Amino acid sequence: MKLSAYAALGATALSVTLAGVAVTSVAQAQDHKIESVAQAKPLPSVDMEAVVKAAQIDPRRPDNKLTPGAKASVLLVEQALRDRHLLDKKWVDGYFGTTTTAAYTKFQQSLGYKGLSANGLPGQASLAKLGAGRFKVTHVIAPGPRVKIGKFVVNTRTQKMLNEAQRLLHRKLTLDQGSYNPGGDPTSAGTHDGGGVVDINVKGMNAATRTSVARALRRVGFAAWVRSPQQGNWPWHIHATAINDTDLSVQAQHQIGDYYLGQNGLANRRPDDGPKVSPIRTWEEYLRAR
Ligand SMILES: [Zn+2]
């Protein structure tokens, strides 16, 4: 578009020159206009993957450390929240802690969002609205539409992650519980209320197999733990929460933060008892590294 418009302008300038009147000023004015468009500063970028990761980890940190790679993007989001009078300027610091999460929830509510859409985790739609005219959003995460696996509901991002884990394991996995299941299982403490969370059935698996399934789930981007009847009022199962799923319930977001911080994702916040994978990767990071 720009090139052809410029070519057309050149042709016009030329024909006017031939006519011989006040040509230069018109052509120069137009040239100047084109130059300023070309020199206009592009909008800065917000890396959505980095911001969402910080929004899960930072509220759980015992210290003020920043999530690596997230500072510049988090600052842009915080500045936009500040300019909307949702966040005091003293919290514009690159740390997506509980105050920033609360401010982001207020922003989502100001858009008329409710429930999971106002979970404090920047989603694709709200982030685009916050950034209008201020920043562009890169590394967009999409949970995708809801689909059924047997009788359980998950989103397509979770479905793809499970398919990849099954491929790595050469084993079919069966679910005990899906996502978007508010109040469906009181022992789950709200973690299954939103997207990205499944329970894997471990019937017939020995301890080594359970561990290898948890490891494969971790490799593709889940925070996954083998849960035993000693830990709660539940049978043996594997609980898996998809890192960076923007539909995560608040409780599930906390499990992701705890996973990064080396904890078990339970209310007692004991040390992680699952198979370590290093580095911890999100699904999108796994796909890029593959
Ligand atoms: Zn569970």
From TrEMBL:
Protein name, per record: Peptidoglycan-binding protein
InterPro entries: PGBD-like_sf, PGBDSf
Organism expressing this protein natively: Actinomadura gamaensis
Signal peptide: 1-29
Taxonomic superkingdom: Bacteria
UniProt KW keywords: Signal
